[in-house]
Design goal:
The protein is α+β, with helices and mostly antiparallel strands. It has six helices and ten strands. It has two domains: 85 residues; 137 residues, dinb family like domain (Four Helix Bundle (Hemerythrin (Met), subunit A)), CATH 1.20.120.450. It has a four-stranded mixed beta sheet. Strands 5-6 form a two-stranded antiparallel ribbon.
Length: 223
Amino acid sequence: MAYQLGIEDIEPYRWLAWVLDLLGCFAAADSEAAAVAAAPAAIRAYFAWLADHGAPPVAPAAEMTVEVAEVFHGYIGEGDYWVNALFADDRRPLTPADVDTGLCLLTYTRQDLANLVTGLSPAALAARHSAAQGASITSLLQHLAAAERWYFGNLDLAQAALPADPLIALDQVRAQTRAWLPALIGDARICEWSGEAWSARKVLRRTLWHERTHTAQIGRMLG
């Protein structure tokens, strides 16, 4: 089976290979070629992750290959804002099956995050880590909540102000996300903010990536 990849330099010197056929699956590397090369292992790890959460086991085909469908080069837009990809695939409206899958995956990503941070002491949450550029777990949780809220705001979906407690903020934003997604089925709008184009599929793609990425970062911070 050939999996289609969308490649982009999501930040300077940081490349992602998005597996367009699999919501929430991606490979990260420091070059375009390395991101493509890492994609098959990321796909196998993705299916293992699903199985760990109780999804029916799926074995990638022995002849699994990857094909680059599109490459997007990020650029500096308005006000030094780094503009990221809207792939051709992102223009497809979300289907009911996409939303069902997305809601399931958002449950898995939040379970992973909760398993790491639930029960941590205030001191552990507030401790700053040099490996995370001086960030604390609290600041990363606040960032996760604010970013998810911002993603959906790019579709002109208004959300309430965030409470100061990051755990409450995460729950509030996720409840809103889960409410919004079914309403986005069939939504073909392409919205623009600061020179970057957004669609419902892109927002879901980025939301899943963002939580998985920072959950892994927090895991490394906790050793």
